[in-house]
Design a protein that fits this description.
Number of strands: 9
Shape: globular
Strand order of the largest sheet: 1-2-3-4-5-7
Distance between the termini: 47 Å
Radius of gyration: 17 Å
Structural class: alpha/beta
Number of helices: 3
Helix content: 10-25%
Order of helices and strands: EEHEHEEEHEEE
């Protein structure tokens, strides 16, 4: 896609670029927009959730990134939390990617909006770094809601919601930062 193909679409509300073999980064292709509310990028070859997306599209309510190659991005969880200081709820679809690790460095305080994250079909390595994600699934949180069946590859494909918290351990010293 030509880098200038979308430059005149700053007032666009919905953009669906599914199944286009797009690769990361997209920063130079997709312009900032104060009106974009829905962005569909499923079934591409994206490997990176970009740092600037929460600023580029402040009205974004739906970001669909399912069926990509996201997963090797170690800071994915903190990039998602950047969306927590918004006026409206945002739904972020990450189903069927290559996410194996989803540590949360802290659970955010209640915000006026909510981030709904779909992790369906990702096979996580469940250990002490997954404990905060387990808490989000098991107990309600006003800021983040996890949607979809999250399974533990290292625990016989068991649902994370069904795992006993004592199973989520790591060798000492543990990387778990929250109490």
């Amino acid at each position: 896609i030509d880098a200038e193909a979308f430059q005149d679409l700053k007032k666009i509300e919905k953009l669906h670029l599914d199944r286009n073999m797009l690769t990361s980064p997209l920063g130079g292709i997709l312009p900032s927009s104060k009106t974009l509310s829905r962005l569909g990028l499923t079934n591409n070859m994206l490997t990176l959730f970009e740092n600037t997306w929460h600023r580029k599209w402040p009205k974004l309510a739906s970001l669909q990134l399912g069926y990509n190659d996201l997963g090797l991005d170690e800071n994915l969880h903190s990039k998602l939390l950047e969306f927590s200081n918004r006026e409206q709820t945002i739904k972020i679809g990450l189903a069927e990617n290559k996410i194996t690790n989803f540590p949360l460095l802290h659970l955010p305080e209640s915000q006026k909006s909510q981030i709904v994250i779909d992790l369906q079909g990702n096979k996580l390595k469940c250990d002490c770094q997954t404990l905060d994600l387990w808490k989000l699934i098991k107990f309600s949180n006003q800021s983040i809601r996890i949607k979809g069946e999250v399974r533990c590859l290292n625990l016989n494909n068991e649902l994370l919601a069904d795992v006993d918290s004592s199973t989520l351990s790591c060798p000492f010293p543990c990387g778990q930062l929250s109490p």
